[in-house]
Structures are given as C-alpha cells and as structure tokens.
Amino acid sequence: MDQENLPLPPDADADAWRQRLVSYYQQNAPTKVKMVNSSMMSKYEGRYSALYANLIKKYGPPGAPIAQPVSAAAPSSGKKSVADFAPEFQALIAKATPSLPPRTTTTVVTDKAGDATNGLETSTFTVCARVRPLLGDEVGGAGENFAAVVAGPRIPGDGGAKAYTEQMLLCAPKVGITGKPKIEQAEFNYDYVFGADSENEEIYALTCKPLLERALNGQVGVVFAYGQTGSGKTHTMNGLMDGLIDSELFSPATEVTFSYLEILGDDIGDCLEGVGGQAKPGVKIGEMLDGSIGTRGLSTKTCANPGELRALVEKAKASRSTAATSRNDTSSRSHGAGIITCKDLATGIEGKLYVIDLAGSERAADSKNHDAKRMAETKLINASLSALKECIRARTMASQPGQGGIHVPYRRSKLTLLMKDVFDIGCTRLCSTVVMTACSPLALDVAHTGNTLKYSAPLRVALRRGTGAKLQRDKLDPALWSVAETLAYLTEAHPNLPDPETFLGGLPGVHLCALPEKEFYTRAAAVGAPVEVAKEVYLGVWTHISDAKTRKRRPNGSIITPEEEEQDRLRLIREKEEKAAIWAEREKHMRSEF
Ligand SMILES: Nc1ncnc2c1ncn2[C@@H]1O[C@H](COP(=O)(O)OP(=O)(O)OP(=O)(O)O)[C@@H](O)[C@H]1O
C-alpha cells in the first residue's frame, strides 16, 4: 500500500485527516476534492474514520475507484436536452433574479407569537426557505449543474391584513418543442427566504433568537430543517446551534440542560451516551398521565457554560448515524433532535428549545442503488416526514374558523409525538415553531425542490391582522377580554386571589394570556397569595384559552353555542326516527302487495 494510504493512527488530528481525505478524493473522485472543507471537517469531528469508511463503501478502496451511477442520462435520440443549453438557461435565470433591497421586517417570529386579533394562537409557525450555494464540482460544472433556484422579491406588507412576504423562485429549465430553451418560473411565498449568499449568523438572528427569548420565558421554541438530502439542513442547524451556544442562554439565574436523541422509525437512540460513533439504543418516548411528553433512557446533562454545551453538541454529532449516499457523502440517516431546557432557578419553571435536523428526503432515482438496509431506512424516514407534513397541515387548518373538529395525528410517529407541544391544541404553553426549508440550487433537482417547496410553502399562515372583525367575537376567549372584563373574571372565578387588581396591573386579557407561568407566580407572591393560588389562576386562564381554541364555529366564523349543538343533535335524532318510520310504512305496503 502507498505511504499516503496507510491507516492513520487512532489519535490522528483533524489536519492529518483533512490531508488523507483530500488525497483519497484526488485518487477516487477528483471532481469532489473541494468537498473537503471546514463544514465537512466540523460535521465529522471525532469520527473521521467513520466518514472514511463511508467513502470507501461508496467510491471504493483508495486508488481503485468504483464507477458512479450517472444521474442525468444524456438523450439518445439526438433531441437537444437541458444540458445542451446550460449557458442560455443561466442567462435567462440571471435575468429573472431580482436584486434584493434590505429587509423591512425583521420581527416576523415575535409578531406571529403576539398576533392575537382573533384570539391567542397558542402555536405559531414561521416558515422559511434557504437555498444553498453551488458546491465543489457543481461550480462551473457540466450538464444540469447550474443554479435554477434563487431568492426572489421581498414584498412589503401594508401593516394591515396584507402580510410581508419573501419569495423563492424556481426556474425550471425546459426545451420547447421548437427546440428553444425557456424557463418555467414558479414563485413560493415564505416569511423569510435566504439566498445562496446568506450566512448562518443572519438566519440565527431572525429566526432562532426569538425562539430563545420564548424559551427563557418558560415557553417552547422549535426549529427544524426539512428538505432533500444534501440540501444543507445539517449545515443550517449546526449554524443555529452555534448561535444558541454563544447566546444569552447562560446566566446565573438559569440552569441549562441538554439532551440529544436520534430517531429512525420507532428506534430511538441517545447520542450523548453513544459509543464507537453510534447512539445508545433503547430510548422510549411516551405520553405521561398529565399529557406531557416523557422520555425513558435518555440522558440529560447539565451545562454550566457555553464550552460545556459545545462539547456535548460535538459528542452528539459524533454519534449520529450517517452514510455516503449518491447525493451527499456526509448524509444524516436519522432525525436528530437536540433538546435544550432552561430552568428559571427562582421559580423552577422550565422553557424548552428543540433544534431538529431531519433526515433528508430522496428522489426515487437517488435511492435506486441502495441496499436493503438503506431502502428500509429511506422508507422509515419518508413515513415520518409524511406524518410530520400531515400534522403541520392539520394544525394550521385547525386554527382557521369552522375547523374545530380537525384531528392532528401527532401520535402517528415518534418524531411528531416528541413535538407534541407544537401540535396539541390543548397545550398549556405558548409554542413558536420555525420551519426551515432547505433547497438544492441545481437545475438537476428542480422537480424534487419543487415538491419540497410545494410541501412547505402552504404551511405558512400569514399574519391576519385587521381581519378579526369577520369572526364573531368569542366572549369567553380571555385573549379578547378588556381590562375590566379580565378583572371581573379574576374576581369572580378566583376568590382566593387577595388583590386581583394589583395582580392584573392593568393588563388586558391578551397580555395576561401571553405572560409566562413564572410571572403568575411572581405577581401572586406580590399580593401575598400562595403558589397554589398562582397555579390555579394560571390553569384557569389556560383552560379558557384551550376552550376558545376548540370552540366550534361555522365556516362563516359564527360560534355554535352548546345549546345550538344540542338542538342540532336532537334534530338529527328526530330526522332519523322520521325516516325509519317512513321506511317501516313502505315496507308494510310492499309486503301487503305480494
Ligand atoms: N449554505 C451553505 N454554505 C456552504 N456549504 C453548504 C451550505 N449548505 C450546505 N453546504 C454543504 O453542502 C453539503 C451537504 O450539506 P448538508 O450535509 O448540510 O446537507 P443535508 O441536507 O443535511 O443532507 P442529508 O439530508 O443527506 O444529511 C455539505 O458539504 C455542506 O457543508
């Protein structure tokens, strides 16, 4: 064996591994040498030998490359294909790409959380898309390796019902029947769109920082990345995690803990207790008697400072299951969920942040070379992604008037069960979710990227400011109470609260509902009420919020009262009995005719 291919010692450092990987790619996949970058080195820190083994599986032993399947087959008929017109398409796409003005809105996540015109929305979604840059041999590459997905216009809102929107443009290259190149452009609306030149720091500030603020207030923040394999999900999630580590998460008033699990179907592993690059299996996720989500067999580590959290995140990354797939040499083959809890040491109330890196979806063409194990993996990944899609769709629909009876099937997969706070209409904490749609820029991938965008764009519910008048006002919804109505409620429903006026401090219902649990405790203590009373008031308010969220409405927004519901039920019974009597009568006549 050549000197350069001899096994590296177990304690070889990152530089030695970088040289080894470069030398390996030069021998077996020379066009991919540029893939050995700082992002790859950090993703695989601590488990370079696993990466090397994955590459050997895909590209063969050093110096003996295995031929790779060709992804875009050249046409045999002599008819011109997209690849033949690459420069023309690039010119057309450059013409369609707008130059972007600076953003006018940078507070979408917080604005959504506070959008209470139609009653308080307990779970809000901010839906974003990011397209990664061209990488390695894609740059100036041949065939359909040019960028056909670009950040489109930013459309300012009017401060009223019309929402602020950013667009992702999908420019599908087509060769017309006349043999001329043309692009079919489709626009997809998002809250934020991040182009190929966007940086993780900017994305953190706009999307993840507001979630952290929410978690520090005892509430729940969730961010997850969805998209095709190799589209940049892990790159983005790692960037957001780095942002969180260096944030205001740590303070003497807060205790921070961290857990990391990986999910593949019903198999759940603890990545902080992993050995030999593999997560420790046997973690269970389930619902507790009080409806909260509990885990068994999952370790939770306390971290006193950013350095400790960073070390745990690196350890978790080192245990995640990865493989070299046809589209990504460093593909994650499981869903990875980092859970950060921040406990207020004064009140004991805990906020939570979930940072979820989903496994990538694959095109049928990309999975055709998989072995049976990888095929089974792909099936499990796709099943849980489809459960996630259904849950988000049902949950956003359930927020619309007249849709109270919608079922959100979050128990269908372990992934959605873990995210119960996002989907449960009766949850007792506010929850903000950021969906990050990761897109490949390649023309080769436009069909798959189109599906990804079609999946995620409709999840966005635009801010509905100014449209509240269309709904019949729900007198029992605390989020709609005036200061006087809120005070009347506290006085009547909570006689044990000594001084409701001071407790309320002049807040209208919507502001009372948005207070974190710990603030109820602080306010109760200030008026001399015990913790039990604070808890009773908090749960009382939240019972009203949940009832208001599930109140039955007609599609026109009017409320169906319990009395009307009862009348409807009795009417249906009466109609059924009348029909049965008519049928009995007919049958009697039919019998007598024979
Ligand atoms: N915005 C970006 N800037 C620079 N490099 C990027 C960016 N996004 C992704 N990459 C690079 O692209 C490659 C694939 O990205 P990544 O592993 O994050 O994809 P993924 O969507 O997580 O894939 P999979 O689902 O297969 O795990 C990596 O080498 C990564 O470093």
From TrEMBL:
Domain Kinesin motor: 124-462
SUPFAM superfamilies linked: P-loop containing nucleoside triphosphate hydrolases (SSF52540)
Keyword Nucleotide-binding: yes
Gene3D superfamilies the record matches: Kinesin motor domain
UniProt entry tagged with the keyword Acyltransferase: no
Binding-site residues for ATP, renumbered to this chain: G227, Q228, T229, G230, S231, G232, K233, T234
Keyword terms of this UniProt record: ATP-binding, Microtubule, Motor protein, Nucleotide-binding
InterPro entries assigned: Kinesin-like_fam (IPR027640), Kinesin_motor_CS (IPR019821), Kinesin_motor_dom (IPR001752), Kinesin_motor_dom_sf (IPR036961), P-loop_NTPase (IPR027417)
Pfam family, one: Kinesin
Family: Belongs to the TRAFAC class myosin-kinesin ATPase superfamily. Kinesin family.
Descriptive protein name: Kinesin-like protein
Organism name: Tetraparma gracilis
